[in-house]
From TrEMBL:
EC number: 3.5.1.18
Cofactor: Zn(2+); Co(2+)
Domain Peptidase M20 dimerisation, first and last residues per copy: 199-321
Annotated protein name in UniProt: Probable succinyl-diaminopimelate desuccinylase
Species of the source: Maritimibacter harenae
GO molecular function: metal ion binding; succinyl-diaminopimelate desuccinylase activity
Similarity comment: family membership: Belongs to the peptidase M20A family.
């Protein structure tokens, strides 16, 4: 049954032009990452706007975080608005950085052009449209209910596209997402306006190196080829590991379907002599390779533990060792993220689902992301479980040429966010 629409939705619809203009203004600040450009400009632009509206604004530089330098300081903006009565805090977190432009554009990537009901530009979809929607939702809600319960926070944070260490991770480590000051978090990533993203799969990256002994290529029997050893590792992966991963299915509603199982990608392989610069005109040298390295990207499920994931790879290497007398290897761990999935009964999920039903006239789909995003830091460092990603924009358009966000989609999801505030803080 569709509930009666709140007058708040009319107020949000009346802000359509303001929402579009804010999205354009955000796109016009080219916050490219890497290297991390114009972070201070975007934080100041948003900070000035919110301060004028009565918000307490803090700009926080992630000093010493990876990527932070005087040339490219990692600036973050956090704004808080206290209602008139005690209550809980709803926090909207958006990353302000965008990925490189790439080729294939027919529009100005930083022009914020409007055509056919869309705003175009790098970051329109991922995720300046979502950031603009959350600002308009909060401002509209405050105007309608100035004496609301609790508090609202809006943050615009750095470096999500490169791991979030100069952004949400830095803030979470300093208590900004502690459950005693923030109770609900919505990350307006472009997951489509009718879907609620509950979390993401886990990640383990590692480099595996096989070792050999260098010798003249005409007498390989005097050396030991690290590339042949790695060949044996890859053969064992094909034989036993990939079928095992394909058999592990998850109850997590991961999209797309292919990611609803464990996966492993071999990101790179390097062995033997270094590849020469294209300007080199000579022949390669005849040597037996004494080192070979691969980097693996293992994505895992909530049903698996990271220890089990690592043990599988080590067991595989031990099996290879058992059949090859001179086999030696090393595993260097690079990066890990545990899977995160918020319960469908969590308050922020229930409120958002009800708001989507009111605005769009149907129940949302619940999804889980195949890759990770800043929810990982809010969960693991901040210890806050009541967190989702919800925002306008079509996920497949993220990072593409001619990226755009639909104006109707921004207005609809701003309406959803405003209703969530009304439900949780009204
Ligand atoms: Zn994003």
């Amino acid at each position: 049954m569709v509930k009666t629409k709140s007058p708040l939705l009319d107020d949000v619809a009346a802000q359509r032009d303001a929402l579009t203009a804010l999205c354009q203004d955000l796109i016009r600040i080219p916050t490219l990452n890497p290297p991390g450009r114009d972070y201070l400009e975007i934080c100041e632009m948003l900070g000035d706007r919110l301060r004028d509206g009565g918000w307490q604004v803090e700009l926080v530089r992630a000093e010493g975080a990876p990527g932070d330098s005087d040339a490219h300081p990692r600036w973050n903006m956090v704004a808080r608005y206290e209602g008139g009565r005690p209550g809980e805090c709803v926090h909207f977190n958006s990353h302000h950085d965008v990925v490189e432009v790439g080729n294939g554009w027919t529009r100005d990537p930083f022009g914020g052009e409007i055509a056919d009901g869309r705003v175009y530009g790098r970051g329109a979809c991922d995720m300046k449209g979502g950031l603009a929607a959350s600002v308009i939702a909060a401002e509209t809600f405050i105007a309608a209910h100035p004496e609301f319960n609790g508090a609202i926070e809006i943050s615009a944070t750095a470096d999500e596209e490169t791991g979030g260490y100069g952004g949400v991770a830095y803030l979470a480590e300093r208590g900004w997402f502690d459950p005693d000051r923030v109770q609900h978090v919505i990350i307006p990533e472009p997951l489509n306006k009718d879907r609620i993203c509950l979390g993401h799969r886990g990640v383990w990256w590692a480099e595996i190196e096989t070792k050999g002994r260098i010798a003249h290529g005409s007498m390989p029997f005097l050396g030991d080829s690290a590339v042949r050893h790695m060949g044996a590792v890859l053969a064992e992966m094909e034989e036993s590991l990939f079928p095992l991963l394909a058999s592990k299915h998850t109850e997590m509603p991961v999209v797309p379907d292919g990611a609803r199982q464990s996966t492993l990608n071999i990101n790179s392989i390097h062995g033997g002599e270094r590849e020469q610069d294209p300007s080199y005109t000579g022949l390669p040298a005849p040597v037996v390779p004494d080192r070979c390295r691969i980097v693996i990207d293992r994505r895992f499920l909530i049903e698996e533990s990271v220890d089990e994931v690592k043990a599988e790879v080590r067991a595989l290497l031990e099996r290879v060792k058992a059949t090859r007398p001179s086999f030696e290897y090393e595993v260097r761990e690079l990066f890990e993220v545990i899977p995160s999935m918020t319960d469908e009964d969590a308050p922020v999920v229930r409120s958002t689902a009800a708001a989507i039903e009111t605005v769009l006239g149907r129940m949302p789909d619940y999804v889980v992301s195949p890759g990770t995003y800043d929810q990982k830091h809010i969960d693991r460092i901040g210890k806050l479980k009541n967190c989702i990603a919800y925002g306008p924009g079509i996920l497949d358009l993220a990072h593409q040429p001619d990226e755009w966000v639909g104006i109707d989609d921004m207005v609809d999801s701003a309406g959803v966010m405003a209703l969530v505030l009304e439900e949780l803080l009204g």
